[in-house]
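Task card 7
Instruction: Convert sequence to structure tokens.
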Amino acid sequence: MKRSCRVSASVTHGLRLSGFKEFGKISVAVVEALEEEPWKVEEELASAYAERGPAALSDFTRRASFLLVDHAAGEIHAARDPVGLGSLFFADTRQGTTIANDIALLIRPGDKLSVCPKGLIQYLTFQYTPAPFTLLSGVQKLHPGEVRTNRIHDGALVGVQRLSPLRFGSNTLSGRELEDVFGEVYGQLRDSVAGRKVGVLASGGVDSTTNALWLKRVGAEPVLLTASFQDPEFDETPYVRDLSAHLGLSLRTHVVTAQPRGDLARLIGFLAEPICDRALIPTGALLSACGHDLSSIVSGEGGDELWGPPRRWPAHVDLAAPFLTASDLASTYLRASAATSIDDRRHMLSSSLAAEIEEEQDRAAKLLESLMVAAEPQDCFQAVKAAQIGTWLPENVIAKDRAAADVIGARPRFPLAHRLCMQFVAGLSNHEHLRGCSGKELLRSFHRGSVPESVWSKPKHKFKVPPGTWLTQPVAEQVCRRIRDGGTGLDRFFSAHFIDSLAAEASRLDDRLVWGIHTLTEWLDAIKARAGSTIHDETDISHTA
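Output:
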């Protein structure tokens, strides 16, 4: 994550703040803003809060992740935006509470890192860690859309509110057409990047093509960026070349070959939390090679989650059926979308930890159920989409491209997950939603005739990364050594049989899981190196409670 914007608030032994701006008796730190400049949100938030108090928080939670301290009321408010672009972690102890956007700031120098076994099970289930879980014992994180309030003098929790990114059936856009919505979304993006170079991550598919087409329509001239591979099975370059020629936009390509271990470790260090998504590798390599002059990176993430169908959904389940029993649907969705089956987790984990798998499976299903219910879906299709947008979108795909953009110090942009896009999709009738999003027909029909025909026939490569770009025997041996060294307790969590198979035949295992475990061990090293480090920020302030 960006080292330049680390913020924290500690209410242990008094109140200590770092990375905040003061506005009278209010201190504010915006961690991430979805569409606007963070400084603008800070000023408007401070002004609105001074006038309306806590009633102003929900409006700004839809725009940004932030921390706000009300010194007069003796309260600190932490809010995470509904898309989850900004992460906020917290640790509650008998001495009080510490909240930060970098999990390393919750670790004191010299502390031994302890992996949370429940968080590890969730990580292996989802391929990321859904809120409130994290991979560190004693540390939790805010849900997307959550506002959490603590007292300053003792850190006690005052209250928690949650905003659902989607609330189906609420037509807040008053019948606006999709063209009008996209015009505003991409017009805002054009204005916010005026005078600066912008790159569009392009695959030649529907989502990235929508970004390129609309930026061109509103008068922007972005650069198209695509990673290619020597193996044509994984290469999307021909589709992007068609798009580049059609729109008259410049194209930068980079052939991703085997990545040095040092480069992989540096890339993983930019992750707020580990994920098993290997797509981080080509995106990070691409931006490192040809993106250093770009101020913003426009990603198509949000296209699948908001405008498309649910991931890996079993064909025998009727998504058009009325939404009646959330618990059954949540369990079915979890089984269908899980990165690993329960049997695989039992094989990988030690016998003591495997005994907790069923309990954690139930806990995960209840989390998904709560996301479904909060969105007020009309059918199963909408319910499953709500679960996907509340977990997979923020914790995996947004996190991936956010980390890749951080490599070059650029700002990630996700126009297809813009709050106006969320409102538009939520306002569709269940019939329009099912028909328009089952195969992305809404986006396809809207752009047909405006882009190359190859866009509609392009096979999906998004999650396919040649294992040879990173998976080597030395990497597998390094992972095994890190598990066995006992420094983080991982040796107690994985079965000896699995560790042996990882050392002997890593190439035969699911490379997504091997990458996920490799990412976990490298990430632990990275946060340990950052733990307790000083935040160099001229706006650092200190108060005594």
